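=== RUN LOG ===
request id: a7f3
mode: sequence -> structure
chains: 1
length: 752
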Amino acid sequence: MGDEYIFMGKWIGADMTVEDRRAPIFKKSFTVKNEINKAEMLICGLGLFELKINGKLPDDTVLNPAHTQYNRTVLYRCFDISGLLVFGENEITVELGHSFFNETTNVWNWDKASWRSSPKLIADLNITFKNGESESICTDENWEYTLDGQITKNSIYYGEVHDLRKNKFKWGKAILVDSPEGELKPQNMPPIRRIGEFKPEKIEKLCDGTYLITAPEMITGWVKLNLCLPKDTEIKVVYSEKLKEEGFIQKIGKYEGHDGPWWPDEYIQQDTFIGNGELCELEPKFSYKGFRYIQIENCPVKITEDDITIYRVANDMEVISAFQCSNESVNKLHEIMQRTLFNNFQGKPTDTPVWEKNGWLGDFSCGLTSIMFNFQMAEYLKNFVGVMNDCFEAYANVPVMVPAAEWGIDNSPVWNTVYVFSCEALLDYCNEKEYVKTLYPNLKQFALNDIEALENQGWVWGHRGLADWLSPMGEADGEIDPGSSEGCEICGTAFIYKMLLSITRIAEILGKTEDIKLYKNACENIYKAFNEKFYNSEKQIYETTFWDQKGHRTKYRQTSNLLPLAFGMVPEENKKAVSENLVNDIINKDYHFDTGCTGVKFILPVLYDNGYSDVAYKVLTQKTYPSWCFWLENGATSAWESWETTTRSQDHYFLGSYDEAYFTHFAGVKDVRDGYKSFTIEPQLDCGLEYVNVSVKTPFGKLVSDWKINNDNTITVKITIPQETKAKVILSAKERIEENLGGGEYEWTIKK
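=== RESULT ===
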């Protein structure tokens, strides 16, 4: 079914208030009298639904549908249930959870969202019979509902309460309710599933009735327990990334843990199960958790490994690439970045699966290129860009996170320019020209708004807005202040400049020639004003006019110089000096970067592109604070939110943007165009590694960049170019090779 499908069913709900946290269950019985040819169930249950046909799930997906800007778009799923229907009596049941559609948390205005409502449902079951007849069973006031189900409380943040004793339901007639404001559209991106299954690394009994389960790695999802709890016994299953010194987990909420005051009355990440005296499978249904540790409290029965299954739950994204090199730490960093991304693919790319569960755009901007090389992103990215676009239409701006409930809607260009960057990525990596064309009027208005804002400020951005978030504080175990000491002047101006370069490319691709001059003129004005205001010709560095001392940060800011170098904002005559001063600062800091999420994305590319391969490799493999390998030295299995050991989240991908250089520099895959119809392969043969083997699955076949330094001081390079594509291959060592090639397998041996 496509976008054109019009539901025949009516929106139905239960007699409950928004404060009622129970999970309503709806049902409809019907009779099948003929042999079925095909049966499709189209359904939207908000906030989340679980559908069963004759007591059976239609597939293995969970947490349907994805979170959207509900006042603009709501998503429905389509299931082929032909094999679940039987001749004679059949029954549909749908249980609904609250999720972000009816969330009580007030931190990001979710409790005040304009769409907030008790759960509601619309569904059409369309059956065609082999005799040519058809029938539709649609939601209406003749369906029944109950509030007597076992889930007596559920929240995407707080978790769930399951009372297994409840088995007698009182049914009433469903109530016709108002439809949500948002337009019904099909969910085309990969759904959420249990994509990984694990056994515990360790089980410890901490005290009477309290068990600590350690997962083998950082995971987003939940645990399933197979236990026979005595009737009326109430156990709690609590999840956390961290342990306290005494060995119990660090709970979050009730003023405990990082940002505990956000949830003053309850702990988050906690499920409760009340036993019925029978062996049961205990697992949540309408919430997910981020964790390394699971604490089970008040459990009177022994828990063994056989009772425990730990699930990773995330969008079932296709991994399209593989990376392997000569340095195991570099390989491990790739693994933890990919794992962290999976953990945060939760219907939208989230920042952290624990505290916020929000689609922060600064995070996505940092990770965008890494994500495009790791995963098949076409439908997932179109969905997320669609949410950005919905927010732009709702607020006349793209907020710092999407979806949004009128929170964070002020303009913050370092975060929200990813709206344009994502569309450029859809063109380059996915060849989604027709889709981007539909968004272009809004993209243009977004760019015009930034042009007007800058022109009114002398073509430079001011102090306000998010910038180089979470730069090192100077002490590995110290307190963290995430804000940028240097403000947003350079970052904000630079990102608008880069956004305008991107929308210029988009306009060229879409044939919007009348707009190109406008964008280019703005870029010229920004370039001039940027250098006049921020370039210190005496020091030969870029610096802002603002300073707020935090921790032990130095006033020379690497990010303030990385961005102009990366975005082409440094006049040619100044590049050498600006680069040298950047490198000198890195060396003076013993080969450590001094950047937050915004700058760290560019440190490896800028160093490699400007001839400082040795410095780049030392930064990449540095093991002391602050560095990526410092995470590994401290046992990390996922990327951290901060450089310090006191980091709030240990499952946060935006500082893991080193992974981009693995593909663009170590493998040399760059200038990808038209969904890999053309690209460049220019491996950084002096990157510090002894061999690199990278493959990327493209729509035309596998792309391979494989090179190795030999004992005789030569380098063997093997490259596979998919058929029906063309590539420029550039190999630079003692000799330089540059060739334009079509599909095929190629090999060179050159002097190092």
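=== NOTES ===
The mean pLDDT is 97.
Residues 433-455 form the longest helix (23 residues).
=== END ===
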